Amino acid sequence: MSNVSLDDKTMARQNGIVQPLLTDLYQITMAYAYWKSGKVNDVAVFDLFFRTNPFQGEFTIFAGLEECLKFLQNFHYSESDIDYLRQTLPSTIESAFFDYLKDLTCKDIILSAIEEGSVAFPRVPLLRVEGPLIIAQLLETTLLTLVNFASLMSTNAARYRMFAGKHISLLEFGLRRAQGPDGGLSASKYSYIGGFDGTSNVLAGKMFNIPVKGTHAHSFVTSFSTLDDIKCVTLQHAETQEQCNLLEKSLDWRNRLSLILDASPEEASDGELAALISYARAFPSGFLALVDTYDVKRYRFDGLHRQHMNGHSGYNSNCGTNGITPAIRSRCGYTVERTLRSGLLNFCAVALALHECGYTAVGIRIDSGDLAYLSVLARDTFKKIAETFALPWFAKLTIVASNDINEDTILSLHEQGHAIDCFGIGTHLVTCQRQPALGCVYKLVEINGQPRIKLSQDVGKVTIPGHKKAYRLFGADGHALIDLLQRSSEAAPEVGQKVLCRHPFQESKRAYVIPSKVEHLYKIYWKDGQITTAPKPLSEVRERVQASLRTLRQDIKRNLNPTPYKVAVSDDLYNFIHDLWLQNAPIGELS
């Protein structure tokens, strides 16, 4: 096994706050108690795993491995760390303990892990940490914080990617809503791993080489009041280099389009037109404009209509207008205000003016209102213009939608037949609102070669003891069938050979599996103070996520009532667990 030396070109810089003191106090107090008890040479095995898949789903994406390796690589208590601990811990702490901490590194730690970007399942350890008890214990909190949110965020993003479909672009717009700067950076990184196509976060783009995307805000539009606010009206032609008067051309096109689109120029905001012209001059080859600043579709209900809609099986009052299907709209007799008459007219006028100057506009962003209806309205408008003026490209302009989008919104929009090409998603993505924590745990499973088990009246919290290996067994159809945990002393399962797979705690749940393929899930990533298997670049981890998801049957990945994926133990491990359970469980006394 060759050692791998990684520099800043192959591994992004380590977050400066990820250091040994980024831990819980009890890790350090336990370390002292271990040290005081003469357990310096004890060797432990810890498993890091989770008990339940997030978001009411049946899979999880493992992420955060690269950050864990950087943490091990840089683990060292600085002089200021030691000084702080001397001041903070009780005065009875022996001075020799601080000398011991000062010399601690991870050179004797062995870290094994599932490949980053792989689908993972409850009880199957994501990481296995082996080495001196004290240092392995001190790693716990930091490893958990590096894996928990990374895996939760990647899973959330992967679910959005599945429900949006592979032909729709997804952009992460969540920095301003994230839980602080570190939460924002992590969300950008791991949403990209999970399948998003880009981020608005410029620093994340620089640090992780993620494509950065963005348009402009409503404030840009409202900062212009009249056409007089345009400081320069000309734009150099892309091919001839001649100066084009973008204002004159835009006004001319707005008048021509008003006849075709049944929209009077008087209904369009001149301030908005001035803003769009100014933005087009700045980005003539990347003109993607926000078009809902001044008029958005609004629904006016009286109390009777609202009551009727809430009682309708196809309407969810929590979804706003996105929950209203066209069929319901036609039956319920409410008043609708005409929409996008300013923004869409002004955008199309500027886009056609740009075309006369040799440039091709990109599209529009809609940030409010009934996204299904408005996107179809915009697409129909683009098609009508494309047909009228023989400009096929105009029909294919990009429509981006934002506005507090979540999984349910996307599924509802699909049902309504939207015409959106790209979703910009922020709050619900980066804060993981449906489930804000994954709940990974870090449990001792072996000490000095002796297995350890945690018992609980809640069977879900009973740990699977000992040093284990994990395998993924595939069925005849090529899909992953079951994950199997075995004692490390057992021979690996073989293709074509019958394997008895058992539920770890329910005696009657067992089945034979004849795998068509066997995948060993663990690789050693850190040993002898060195990275032994280089972590993959972010782009390859991203590809791994999608490849790994393709190995799962569709019923396991569906949104509603997904089929649970099976995790089993070998017959040998099953018997080992229950023998150890009986040895450690206290015997009650009746009187």
TrEMBL record:
Reactions catalysed, as given in the entry: 5-phospho-alpha-D-ribose 1-diphosphate + nicotinate + ATP + H2O = nicotinate beta-D-ribonucleotide + ADP + phosphate + diphosphate
Post-translational modification: Transiently phosphorylated on a His residue during the reaction cycle. Phosphorylation strongly increases the affinity for substrates and increases the rate of nicotinate D-ribonucleotide production. Dephosphorylation regenerates the low-affinity form of the enzyme, leading to product release.
Keywords: Ligase, Phosphoprotein, Pyridine nucleotide biosynthesis, Transferase
Enzyme class at the top of the EC tree: ligase
GO terms classed as biological process: NAD+ biosynthetic process via the salvage pathway
GO cellular component, one term: cytosol
MF annotations from Gene Ontology: nicotinate phosphoribosyltransferase activity; transferase activity
Residue span(s) of domain Nicotinate/nicotinamide phosphoribosyltransferase: 362-463
PANTHER family in UniProt: NICOTINATE PHOSPHORIBOSYLTRANSFERASE
Gene3D superfamilies: Aldolase class I, nicotinate phosphoribosyltransferase
Its biological purpose: Catalyzes the first step in the biosynthesis of NAD from nicotinic acid, the ATP-dependent synthesis of beta-nicotinate D-ribonucleotide from nicotinate and 5-phospho-D-ribose 1-phosphate. Helps prevent cellular oxidative stress via its role in NAD biosynthesis.
Positions of the Nicotinate phosphoribosyltransferase N-terminal domain: 21-148
Originating organism: Pieris macdunnoughi
Superkingdom to which the source organism belongs: Eukaryota
Domain Nicotinate phosphoribosyltransferase C-terminal, residue spans: 468-576
Pathway of action: Cofactor biosynthesis; NAD(+) biosynthesis; nicotinate D-ribonucleotide from nicotinate: step 1/1
Pfam families in UniProt: NAPRTase, NAPRTase_C, NAPRTase_N
Protein name in the entry: Nicotinate phosphoribosyltransferase
